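seq as requested:
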Amino acid sequence: MHGMTRTASTVLFLTLVAWMVPSTLHTAHGELLVSEELNFEIETPPGWTRLPADESWSPHGIVVGSIRELDRLKDASPAKGEGGELYLAITDAPAGKTLDDLAADPEVRGFLLKRFDVDPAKWPEVTVAAGTNEDGLETRILQADGEAPNLEGRKAPVRAVLILAKAKGKLCKLRMYAWHSEHDAEGLKADLDFIEVHFRIPDLGEEPPEETPGGGPPDGGDEANAPEGDEAVEREVEDEVVGWRLVKPVGIRTREEYDKQKYKDVAVWFEDSDPVGSYQIILYVVERGRRDENNRVMANIPLKAWALDRWWPEFDEAHEDGPVHTYGWPRRSKSFLTLPDWGNERTVFSEPRKRPPTPLDVDGNDLIRRYKVAEKIKNQKVGKTKPNGGYRGVLAGNRELVGREWVIRYVWDTPRLTCYLVISITRDGRKKFSDRIQSLLESIEMTDPARGR
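struct tokens:
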């Protein structure tokens, strides 16, 4: 399994092996697990299906998983937990450590071998091979064979493989298990070979220079991931003509490049991501009574229709698996623009089959009155301004290939403006970015365009 650089004939052979193995599984096909944002691509053979994201993945940096579950073995006998699993974890690459160092690190090995036993003394022997794929990605491949609890919790023969790779300051750990029958007639080991060959990091980037022992950053800083550029600066953003302003805090990154024609009503856009999580904050501002290109007065945008009426069908489609939650709002806050009370979680739908059977029929009124995931503005203010009206709501669910996602929507209007703010936070980004986002929300103000400040 552990060759150096793969030749085209080897790739073809492994592909044929994986595809010619008779399948006794569910009818699912192999898939391409890919994320441009997280910079990975994994092709799985037929019979493997993507796992829904799980909160237990976050402490390990796991971003995607897949499984192959056998119903019957090749000899037609019932399967007893035979099958395969894979998980990809992406974390910051430890400074000053080579791939060989990481392959020998007990903590890194534990990510693979704790399945065998929590006691390192009982771990099986590990072989390590160096490899370079056709894209030039250097890897270290750890392999161990022994017995470990299988998909049904039975101790059974297993091949365990861990592929290590570094790119753009990140460490990728692709962990795979194949619980096989005596002669592996089902081709589970061949599946791991196939996945190894079809694992890619599309953007290899440039590796940062290795830190010398005892050395420190040239500028004397002690933060390996200190903010840079726009992210490192607190900056006031203001439109004196339209009449709004906010303060972008340190640790929030402005997105400058987007389709300005398509998103012509976007006033400001903030966005960033890393393996820990991500955030996206988009503020739309539309002048009421504006005129079209023929100088005709345009109808004002209905608040509830803009923010809530089409929200559920969009959310339901993007978060197909797992439960859906919502949250209460801080009781003592008089500000309309505040993050939800994360400690006040409520389950809206415990499983997909309990969701509305016709998502398109769910409108803003249903979200407010029936499901109580949104509410009408009360006595809250935006900065020092009391809006004419508005709504806010929050939904949380599992987004495919991403993991847990929280989506918050606010919409409000003043005599002059209609404003719509959408926030998305994923995985552990809620812990990492919440304080910064709250600071940004508290800074938003409506201003008098005639007097500016």
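The two ends are 68 Å apart (CA to CA).
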